Each structure stands twice: as C-alpha cells, then as structure tokens.
Amino acid sequence: MTAHPSHVRPAPEGPRPVLARITPPARPLGPWRFLRTVVRNPLEAWPETIYREPHYTSEFLGTSSLFVMAPNLIRRVMVDEADAFEKSEVLRRALSPALGDAILTADGARWRWQRRAAAPIFRAERIRSFVPAMIAAAERTRDALAAGASTGNGAEIDIAQTMMRTTFEIIVETMLSGHGRIDAARVEQGITDYLESTSWVFALTLLRAPAWMPFPGRSKAERAKSYLRDELLRLAGEGRRNGTEGRNDLMSLLLAARDPETGQAMDDRDVADNLLTFVTAGHETTALALTWAFYLLSHHPESEALIAAEVEAATGGGPLTADHVDALPYTRQVILEAMRLYPPVPVVVRAALRDVDLDGVPVKAGTPITIPIYAVHRHATLWDEPERFDPARFAPEAVKARDRYAYLPFAAGPRICIGMGFALSEAVAILAVLVRALRFSLRPGTLPVLKQRITLRPADGMPMRVTLR
C-alpha cells in the first residue's frame, strides 16, 4: 500500500469513473479503412489483440510489421539487441525535417557522440540547479489562476494550454536564459502546426509514397518547420557570439559541450537541432503528463487531497523548495500513473538492420518493429485492472515486483529519454505548487478524445474550472 499523510485517508471507493481511452477494433482493419484511421488517429488502428497477446504481426499492402508487447521481447529490442535496430523510416520522415540530425533522430556514431556530449547536462546535480526556476514558473501560473479563481464560482481554463505555457516558460528559462527574446506563442503554435502533419506522413510512408508528396496541411507544416529551425539557429548563433562564461542554461552547455572520447564540439546547426529537440520534446511531453494528471485527479478528488496534504506535511506550511520536490513520493506516483494510462509518447518504432531472433520470434532485416507503449501500459497480462487509476502501482515494493519493461514512458535501453530526470522533477514541482493552492474540476460531461500526433494529446483541449483550495 502507498503511505499517505497521517491526517488524510483515501475516500471510500464509489462507482468508478469512465475514463478516456482508445476503443480498439475487434479485428484488424481492411487496408483502406486502416489507412483512413491512421490519418485520423494512428492509435485507433491497433486491433484489440495488441492489448492481450505477447506479439502480433500486421500486414499492409504486402509489408509485414511486428508489434512486440511482452517485456522480454521489448528488452531484446531496446537493450539486448539495440544495435540491431535503427530509428524507423516513418519517424525520420516525420521528425527529421524539423529536428535535423539531433539526438532524437540520429543513429549510429552521430547519435553516440551527441549523446555523450549532452549527457553531463542532465546529471542529477545539474537538474537540481534548474528546480528553483521550475518552482518559480509554477508559482506564477498559480498566482494567475488564483486571481481568476477568486471571482464568483471560479474560472474555466484549458489546462492543456496552461500547462503548455508553463512548461514552455521553464524551457525558455532553463535552456535559453539570457540568449535573446523568443516568441513563445509563435514557437508553440509552430510546434503544434508541424506535429499536426505527422499522421499524413505515417500514412504516406505506409504507401511508400515519395517524401515530396503533397498532403493537406503540408504548406502550413513547412512554414512552421522553417520558422522553428531559423529561430533556433538564430539563437544558437547569438549564444555563440555572446559567449557562455558563467551561464547555466542548456544552450550555453550545448555550445560548450565536448564529446569526452574525441573532443568533438557541436556547430551552430547541431546546437540548434538539439535545442529544438529539447524545446519540442521537453515542454510538450511534460505538459501532456500534467494535463492527463489533472484530468485523472478531477475524477479522483481523494488523490488530489492526498497530494495537497503531502505538500503541506513536507513543507511545514512554508514555501516549496528543491529539497521538498525530492520528498513527495505520492505526488510522484500520481505523475507516473498518469503516464501509464496516458503516455505522452505512446509508441516507439524501430527497423531491423539485420535478421534477428527475439526469443524465438524471427525478424527479417528491414522489418518495422512497433512497441505500442499505450497498449503495453494497458496490457491484460501485465497490469491488474489496467483501466483503473491507482498511484499505488508505483509504490517502491510494487515497482520492484513488476518487470522493468512493462512500463516505458521514457523508453528504455541506450536511447532512454535523456531528459527523464528533468521532466519528472518539473512535473512534480508544478503539480505540487498548483494542487496545494487550487482545485481543478473537469467541465461536466467532458470525455476527452485521445489523439496521437507523435505525442498523445486531448483532441479538443481539457476544459477545467479552477477554484481556491
């Protein structure tokens, strides 16, 4: 059982809320229905069998793809045989035009040296130095929301937009501090416009269409890509000219980074590509984890009360500090459970570089391998009552008893998310600051629609009423 603050106990269980989820088709879809579904929302094309079998082979226009859900097979792909797999063509076509050849999209030697160069930036002590900026941004959001909530019956907001703005503010402060102004609203819109095009890229890749093929929204995505790359390249150039001495932001650290084995440094394009990767992945994924956490808490007020009590007990009624962020186990468990039910990155796709045997499952060179993280996190053989929200799943003893590869919000193996520690500290800090002061209630009758655009978003935002606690 999860340890709760001594003066707060979970409320008795009533009827369980109906939570937003993907309803999978009972049988595999025919080719054209499959293609239409992929364009609308790729997750909806996964058949029900993916949620209960260890692996599954999908066929589309003569091409086979392997889905792996069993933890032993996932471990083989992501760890034991990691060098036998590369980033898939669909991911490269979807993201490389915007992110270049940075840590997220590169493979082989180029990925390895960038990872080695950037790794010191995300060490625990460095992340800890960023936590005060995370708390300060969360407090500014709290104060703005409290001002609106103090009038009448509170104020309605889109918590998804609010979290995007808050995490973007943190990214700008910790990654670009002192390196010139950035139009946050335009960058955020550019990211959204670009990601919106990715489902078409998935579909056209499946059809083996050339990369230049036009599709609805392509011109908007191209404009967004050009703006984002030009803006980050401008900032990288300014950062190099202004110097990095005495600065602790990510841009300065990337400009100063060296591969410890070769001494190689990043040029402005490398810095810009990696900054855009961290800006995009860093604020979008954490904002979505928080959005879904607030959604779940609105259906489970007893958990919201436990977070508020935990924060009060840890701080003794005083301001939240970096030390306190490390001492909020239940708050962290809520974030981890939110990322189980709604993983911000719901799928990982690889391609086999050579013939591989995955514990008796033969894989031919060139075969696309899908690790459907959303389905793994709700898999009938891996989780007890997988559709139920239960932060106790992430109590230490429960984590030890579970296979490491049943839970993959940050992927695993050599390519595990380099910003995992940053994201978790940020999410815990923001949730603690806001829940301590405010209550969040979903607009009555709202059932969010899940939409995959690389990340897992609520299709129409997340309308919530905010009141003072």
Automatic annotation (TrEMBL):
User: Pfam families annotated for this entry?
Assistant: p450
List, separated by semicolons, the cofactors it needs: heme
Q: Does the keyword Metal-binding belong to this entry?
A: yes
Q: Where does heme bind?
A: 417
Give UniProt keywords alphabetically: Heme, Iron, Metal-binding, Monooxygenase, Oxidoreductase
User: Domain of life here?
Assistant: Bacteria
Query: What Gene3D superfamilies is this protein classified in?
Result: Cytochrome P450
The family database entries (PANTHER family) matched by this protein are listed as: BIFUNCTIONAL ALBAFLAVENONE MONOOXYGENASE_TERPENE SYNTHASE (PTHR24291:SF50), CYTOCHROME P450 FAMILY 4 (PTHR24291)
**Membership in a protein family:** Belongs to the cytochrome P450 family.
This chain belongs to the protein called Cytochrome P450
Traced from the root, the source organism's taxonomic lineage reads: Bacteria, Pseudomonadati, Pseudomonadota, Alphaproteobacteria, Hyphomicrobiales
